[in-house]
Amino acid sequence: MFTFEQYLGFILFLTILTTGFWLMIFLIGFVVPYWLSGNLIEWFKERKKS
């Protein structure tokens, strides 16, 4: 059926795919909204000053 090297390659592929998937979920769910809200707050503060 599969050789041991193919099995290891498949496991490595799944590991990289899963890591990338969860990294994208983290970036979309937390980092990007945090970055956008921080920029908006700074923009409103500067707008209020002038």
Taking the alpha carbons of the first and last residues, their distance comes to 71 Å
Low-confidence stretches: none
What's the count of strands? Answer: 0
**Roughly what is the average pLDDT, rounded to an integer?**
96
SSE order, one letter for each helix or strand: H
Q: Roughly how much helix do the residues carry, as a percent range? A: over 70%
Query: So what's the overall shape?
Result: rod-shaped
Q: β content, as a range?
A: under 5%
How does this model look, in words?
The protein contains 1 helix and no strands. The chain is 92% helix and 0% strand. It has one domain (7-50). The protein starts with a helix and ends with a helix. With 50 residues, it is an all-alpha fold. The chain is rod-shaped and about 70 Å long. The model has no long low-confidence stretch (mean pLDDT 96).
Chain-wise SSE layout:
Elements: H1 4-49
Q: TL;DR?
A:
The chain has about 50 residues and is mainly alpha-helical. About 90% of the residues lie in helices and about 0% in strands. The protein has one domain (about 5-50).
Keyword list:
single chain, 50 residues, mainly alpha
